[in-house]
């Protein structure tokens, strides 16, 4: 019989003994989490504090070896971590915290993959329009050998059809990871709003939002961190690649739903149409911002097939899942609500996506 354990796997029952040890009342473990030099992967490390922080502003600025994360040269390697958002730690429990940080070089300028700083500046300019985001994070579960979870070792599962929102051991693979992640997010204080099994087997989605302003990017990055950590516990790997399996298999996106106060009010559809018009004039610029490789990743995904639009053309439509922008049926009927930008890839940076959407729609900055 094939073992599901790899050499690196430890015994979680033994581990539980140590996690139950009572901790000193006056100590707290704070895990600093940040986006590394790839702009896709996350890193983390922990320090002990002798108080329980309530707000990121109470936390010390820290640093790390940026030459080991693609964020600095070895000869000048210290990169600064600035705490920006604080969460309850669903792994260590108690008073322990996870803290999301953005990163700054030795001269206090943002690192190349710190896209939060400019995002926040732009969002502040549009604060009065009350921008809300809701992002749908699609991802694929892989086994420790990078093979899609539950797929036959040789060959492929049956064609797509029965898997989306499916139930049953022959339809969905890895539900434990999804369920554990959902609860970990709620515990942490992330505004997670749902999950579903996706069209390709072993592919899943969770949604975060609606979130106002920068909270969208903060919560989504921390939700990604929790997903990688939870999957690690199950000896499973998470891939955010937008087209993990070439051919007749759906890719993975990060549909970005967006609204302003005006769009949510009576006859907001007029404002939604104006937003679509602005978006139509900036298609190429948005495609550049919608994956970490300036559009290269989305070339594999946005083929105009398998519920995607073509990367080359802008399109919009009511209830249309083959367009760049979809106006949900309910929004068209109520004549108010939000729009869905279906173009961002699953590995896009939510700060970059938030920033360009607000520039184009709210600030007419193009
Ligand atoms: P679908 O799969 O049909 O595209 P989902 O239910 O997966 O839709 O996701 C809808 C997303 O839209 C959720 O993340 C939700 O938070 C977000 N959302 C709902 N209302 C608004 C709104 N007014 N403004 C922005 N986002 C919204
Ligand atoms: Mn050291
Ligand atoms: Mn969805
Ligand atoms: Mn989906
Ligand atoms: Mn969607």
Automatic annotation (TrEMBL):
Known catalytic reactions: L-glutamate + NH4(+) + ATP = L-glutamine + ADP + phosphate + H(+)
Lineage: superkingdom: Eukaryota
Every GS beta-grasp domain range: 28-108
Keyword Aminoacyl-tRNA synthetase: no
Main location, first listed in the record: cytoplasm
Keywords on record: ATP-binding, Cytoplasm, Ligase, Nucleotide-binding
Pfam families in the record: Gln-synt_C, Gln-synt_N
One annotated Gene Ontology cellular component of this protein: cytoplasm
Record's subcellular location: Cytoplasm
GO biological process, one term: glutamine biosynthetic process
Protein family: Belongs to the glutamine synthetase family.
Record protein name field: Glutamine synthetase
């Amino acid at each position: 019989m094939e073992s599901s354990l790899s050499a690196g796997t430890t015994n979680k029952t033994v581990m539980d003994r140590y996690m139950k040890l009572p901790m000193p009342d006056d100590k707290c473990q704070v895990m600093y989490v940040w986006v590394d030099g790839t702009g896709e992967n996350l890193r983390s490390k922990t320090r002990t504090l002798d108080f329980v922080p309530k707000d990121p502003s109470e936390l010390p600025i820290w640093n790390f070896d940026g030459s080991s994360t693609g964020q600095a040269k070895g000869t000048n390697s210290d990169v600064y971590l600035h705490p920006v958002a604080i969460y309850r730690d669903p792994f260590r429990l108690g008073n322990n915290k996870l803290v999301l940080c953005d990163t700054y070089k030795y001269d206090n300028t943002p690192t190349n993959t710190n896209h939060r700083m400019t995002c926040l500046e732009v969002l502040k300019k549009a604060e009065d329009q009350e921008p809300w985001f809701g992002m749908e994070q699609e991802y694929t579960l892989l086994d420790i050998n990078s093979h899609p979870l539950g797929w036959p070792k040789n060959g492929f599962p049956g064609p797509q059809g029965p898997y989306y929102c499916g139930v049953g051991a022959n339809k969905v693979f890895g539900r434990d990871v999804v369920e554990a992640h959902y609860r970990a997010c709620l515990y942490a204080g992330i505004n997670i709003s749902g999950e579903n099994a996706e069209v390709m087997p072993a592919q899943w989605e969770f949604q975060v939002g609606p979130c106002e302003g920068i909270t969208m990017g903060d919560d989504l990055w921390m939700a990604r961190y929790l997903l990688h950590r939870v999957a690690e516990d199950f000896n499973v790997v998470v891939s955010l690649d937008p087209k993990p399996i070439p051919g007749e298999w759906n890719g993975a996106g990060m549909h970005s739903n967006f609204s302003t106060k005006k769009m949510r009010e009576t006859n907001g559809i007029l404002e939604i149409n104006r937003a679509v018009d602005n978006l139509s004039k900036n298609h190429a610029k948005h495609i550049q911002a919608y994956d970490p490789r300036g559009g290269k990743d989305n070339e594999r995904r946005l083929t105009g097939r398998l519920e995607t639009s073509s990367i080359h053309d802008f399109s919009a439509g009511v209830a249309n899942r083959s367009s760049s922008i979809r106006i949900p049926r309910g929004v068209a009927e109520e004549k108010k609500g939000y729009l869905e930008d279906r173009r961002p890839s699953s590995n896009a940076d939510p700060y970059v996506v938030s920033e360009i959407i607000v520039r184009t729609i709210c600030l007419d900055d193009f």
